Amino acid sequence: MRDSFLGKRIRGGGYAIKGAWLLLRHEASIQVQFGIAIIVTISGIYFEITKTEWLFQFTAIGMVMAAEGLNSAIEALADFVHPDLHSKIGHIKDVAAGGVFFAALIAVIIGGFIYLPYIF
Ligand SMILES: Nc1ncnc2c1ncn2[C@@H]1O[C@H](COP(=O)(O)OP(=O)(O)OP(=O)(O)O)[C@@H](O)[C@H]1O
């Protein structure tokens, strides 16, 4: 069972859950995004948003959390491979952060489309 196809998939899922827990415990950027996810979830309940709006909201939350998690992994890898200052490392980290920026920008636009009509 341990080395079977299913056993490997289950173990992979376990590592992924461990990684998600590590992100939530140690990464400030993920903690901030998780806090925002809780606030918008409470807002969704408060404003009784529609099923379609929930789908867009959860998609946006997942997109930003995934981007932040991958950015944290790239930062950690870069620091491990080259702990000293280097323009290439700076470029790699900036590009990874740029990916998070795209995800966050789209999430803010989705949030605006959902909540501005409820608020104004
Ligand atoms: N080793 C390095 N060499 C050159 N520039 C770096 C290096 N490390 C960081 N930088 C620059 O500093 C910026 C911030 O990097 P840093 O690793 O501190 O990210 P951060 O978003 O502040 O993450 P965290 O708060 O999780 O440490 C990078 O985007 C890059 O421009």
From TrEMBL:
<dbReference type="GO" id="GO:0046872">
    <property type="term" value="F:metal ion binding"/>
</dbReference>
<keyword id="KW-0443">Lipid metabolism</keyword>
<keyword id="KW-0460">Magnesium</keyword>
<keyword id="KW-0479">Metal-binding</keyword>
<feature type="binding site">
    <location>
        <position position="75"/>
    </location>
    <ligand>
        <name>ATP</name>
    </ligand>
</feature>
<feature type="active site" description="Proton acceptor">
    <location>
        <position position="68"/>
    </location>
</feature>
<keyword id="KW-0067">ATP-binding</keyword>
<keyword id="KW-0808">Transferase</keyword>
<comment type="similarity">
    <text>Belongs to the bacterial diacylglycerol kinase family.</text>
</comment>
<keyword id="KW-1133">Transmembrane helix</keyword>
<feature type="transmembrane region" description="Helical">
    <location>
        <begin position="28"/>
        <end position="49"/>
    </location>
</feature>
<dbReference type="InterPro" id="IPR036945">
    <property type="entry name" value="DAGK_sf"/>
</dbReference>
<keyword id="KW-0472">Membrane</keyword>
<protein>
    <submittedName>
        <fullName>Diacylglycerol kinase (ATP)</fullName>
    </submittedName>
</protein>
<keyword id="KW-0418">Kinase</keyword>
<feature type="binding site">
    <location>
        <position position="15"/>
    </location>
    <ligand>
        <name>ATP</name>
    </ligand>
</feature>
<feature type="transmembrane region" description="Helical">
    <location>
        <begin position="55"/>
        <end position="74"/>
    </location>
</feature>
<feature type="binding site">
    <location>
        <position position="27"/>
    </location>
    <ligand>
        <name>a divalent metal cation</name>
    </ligand>
</feature>
<keyword id="KW-0444">Lipid biosynthesis</keyword>
<feature type="binding site">
    <location>
        <position position="27"/>
    </location>
    <ligand>
        <name>ATP</name>
    </ligand>
</feature>
<feature type="binding site">
    <location>
        <begin position="93"/>
        <end position="94"/>
    </location>
    <ligand>
        <name>ATP</name>
    </ligand>
</feature>
<keyword id="KW-1208">Phospholipid metabolism</keyword>
<dbReference type="GO" id="GO:0016301">
    <property type="term" value="F:kinase activity"/>
</dbReference>
<dbReference type="GO" id="GO:0005524">
    <property type="term" value="F:ATP binding"/>
</dbReference>
<feature type="binding site">
    <location>
        <position position="68"/>
    </location>
    <ligand>
        <name>substrate</name>
    </ligand>
</feature>
<dbReference type="GO" id="GO:0008654">
    <property type="term" value="P:phospholipid biosynthetic process"/>
</dbReference>
<dbReference type="InterPro" id="IPR033717">
    <property type="entry name" value="UDPK"/>
</dbReference>
<dbReference type="GO" id="GO:0005886">
    <property type="term" value="C:plasma membrane"/>
</dbReference>
<dbReference type="Pfam" id="PF01219">
    <property type="entry name" value="DAGK_prokar"/>
</dbReference>
<keyword id="KW-0594">Phospholipid biosynthesis</keyword>
<keyword id="KW-0547">Nucleotide-binding</keyword>
<feature type="transmembrane region" description="Helical">
    <location>
        <begin position="95"/>
        <end position="118"/>
    </location>
</feature>
<dbReference type="InterPro" id="IPR000829">
    <property type="entry name" value="DAGK"/>
</dbReference>
<keyword id="KW-0812">Transmembrane</keyword>
<keyword id="KW-1003">Cell membrane</keyword>
<feature type="binding site">
    <location>
        <position position="75"/>
    </location>
    <ligand>
        <name>a divalent metal cation</name>
    </ligand>
</feature>
